Amino acid sequence: MKPVLVDTSVWVDHFRARNVALEQLLELDRVLMHPMVLGELACGTPPSRKQTLGHLQHLRQMQQANLREVLVLIETERLFGVGCGLIDLTLLASTLMTPGAELWTLDRRLGDLAHRFAVAHRPVGH
């Protein structure tokens, strides 16, 4: 079973309305965390803020692409002008660097790129 980086968009959706597929991944210890996702969530108002952010910090960490690696990916794969920002492309690069990892996002543009690179996660029943 592949590990899955859960994008901020999925977490926010889960905080608004319970996401059973995400809960199943959590129970199976398949969820990966990236500091950029944690940072984005910390900028918002997750439920039970302190406890939630504390739990998220203890999820498995994935490999992290550095800025140079992200910039190389942007240039070599011509990812400029596609409507994704630096954080999204950092998450994509980190997913590509983490063996077997998939990326689950509700963001259409990032999702399109995840499909292009064959790392898109499709939750069961979706």
Automatic annotation (TrEMBL):
InterPro entries attached to this UniProt entry: PIN-like_dom_sf
The protein's name in its UniProt record: Nucleic acid-binding protein
Organism: Variovorax paradoxus
Superkingdom of origin organism: Bacteria
